[in-house]
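Hi all, posting the design record for the shared folder.

TITLE: backbone redesign
STEP: 1 of 1
STRUCTURE INPUT:
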């Protein structure tokens, strides 16, 4: 097992390099980079003030005297455009910029945001509590609901309970999480009916003044609606996956043999079936956690005014804030690969018969 873990850890390096390189090429080819955006702001400033470019570009220097590769830069002083390039690091060729980025990342230096005037790592740490809260609690509650419900549906397959719960699951799955979030706001956050829950933020304005018990209650009070919206949209697939996994195992020969020996249903279910059926559930945990943690909460963060990693990453991509884009991509990808490895290790804890050492590569 140790050799397998070492191989997986070593494979993380080329995987990260490949993902960063592909995204670097795509983003460099996309129009509307930070230099273009700054030029657009200057052009807008010129239009609003009636020709202030001469003062900005340095004492009435002649403008438009040289061609530019940037759209909309023909009316600006070439020296000003060159200064903007130096400010964002675009005075260097793309391969050199990529190499410098890799060297910085190797030293855990993720640079400074172009537009937020803060270090990328500080921004990630600042936004992390919101995303951790949404991802952790929604994933935990989803598994706590889906696994017992899936087992109950498997043991009562075809019964009225199975039919009714399947109908409810399908309805919940059909409603997008953001639409359900709006419905929760209308019903319970002062929309049209009851005003029971807060509409924005992770904590109240007087959070620091509350006692410990009050802080805990206030924290979960703010999380109740957004976490509920995330859980409704995510537990259906896991519930049906759990049910089908248990049904598949219940029909196998070793279960028939165990029952023929006189073992109780609970002993057969939890002593034999559970370990084998849970393997596929564990296999999906890393992707489920990463999905809810980083991407599934974007619209929820917007609707409930929660300033988390999803919203920050989206705004960084729109604004072409490259240090934030690549810094979050590097950290999220690294975390995803590590979590995937943890999922494989958990396999062996659930079923020691699995031997990763025998795998090639």
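Okay, here is what came back for every position:
SEQUENCE:
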């Amino acid at each position: 097992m140790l050799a397998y873990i070492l191989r997986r850890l070593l494979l993380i390096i080329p995987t990260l390099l490949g993902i960063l390189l592909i995204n670097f090429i795509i983003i460099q080819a996309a129009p509307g980079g930070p230099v273009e955006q700054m030029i657009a702001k200057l052009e807008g400033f010129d239009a609003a003030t009636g020709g202030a470019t001469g003062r900005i570009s340095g004492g009435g220097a002649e403008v438009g005297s040289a061609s530019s590769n940037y759209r909309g830069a023909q009316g600006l002083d070439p020296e000003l455009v060159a200064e903007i390039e130096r400010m964002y690091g675009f005075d260097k060729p793309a391969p050199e910029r990529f190499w410098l980025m890799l060297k910085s990342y190797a030293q855990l230096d993720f640079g400074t945001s172009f537009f937020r005037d803060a270090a990328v790592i500080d921004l990630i740490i600042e936004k992390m509590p919101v995303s951790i809260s949404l991802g952790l609690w929604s994933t935990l509650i989803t598994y706590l609901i889906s696994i017992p419900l899936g087992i109950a549906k498997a043991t009562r397959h075809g019964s009225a309970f199975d039919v009714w719960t399947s109908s409810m699951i399908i309805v919940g799955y059909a409603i997008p999480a953001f639409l359900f979030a709006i419905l929760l706001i209308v019903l319970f956050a002062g929309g049209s009916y009851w005003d029971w829950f807060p509409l924005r933020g992770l904590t109240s304005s007087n959070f620091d003044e509350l006692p410990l018990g009050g802080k805990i209650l206030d924290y979960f009070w703010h999380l109740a609606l957004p976490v509920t919206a995330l859980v409704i949209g995510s537990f259906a697939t896991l519930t049906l996956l759990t049910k089908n996994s248990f049904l598949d195992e219940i029909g196998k020969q070793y279960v028939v043999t165990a029952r023929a020996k006189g073992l109780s249903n609970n002993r057969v279910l939890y002593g034999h079936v559970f370990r084998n059926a849970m393997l596929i559930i564990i296999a999906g945990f890393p992707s489920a956690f990463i999905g809810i943690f980083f991407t599934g909460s974007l619209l929820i963060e917007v609707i409930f005014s929660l300033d988390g990693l999803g919203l920050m990453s989206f705004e960084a991509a729109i604004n072409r804030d490259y240090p934030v884009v690549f810094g979050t991509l590097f950290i999220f990808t690294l975390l995803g690969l590590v979590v995937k490895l943890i999922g494989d290790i958990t396999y062996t804890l659930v079923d020691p018969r699995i031997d990763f050492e025998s795998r090639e590569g």
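COMMENT: The chain is about 70% helix and 0% strand.
Let me know if anyone wants the other runs.
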